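Typical record was shown:
=====
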Amino acid sequence: MSSQPEAAVRRWVETVVVGLKLCPFAERELRDDRVRFVVTDAATTEDLTKSLLEEFELLETDGSIETTLLIHPNVLRDFLEYNNFLSAADELLVESGFEGTFQIASFHPEYQFSGIDPDAVENYTNRSPHPILHLIREESLSRAIDSHPDVDNIPLRNIEFLRNMGTDKVTALLRKCY
């Protein structure tokens, strides 16, 4: 039985990320059950750092997991704090010897690209029901990028697609995930 945060993030991945084709690489991994959804009960950044390291170690040893969504509903609810934590997470990659093995992608309910209005629809390409650290295998990402005919255009396509949908429809779709 999954928790509410896990269920919400699963619905978001299925309906927004895969359903709207925001990530052309996600559908196969989701279908093949190679996406690990894990909710940490971390209440501090120190606890979250420990959870993150544990997930790196698990990914390193378990080849059946392609990617992990580390959902942390109790810590870093504020986007600026979350954004600042990403630097520490990248430092952890280096310090733990996982730089070049894994990458971290970021998703947050209040995600805001630098220099973009907080209400702009393009922020919704990275908005999720709960704060998430997405752990990605660099080797797999490189293969996926090499096999995609127009990988550089994915972000632009996503922004244009969401603009055409309109902010009201996009926010309603995200709300349905909760």
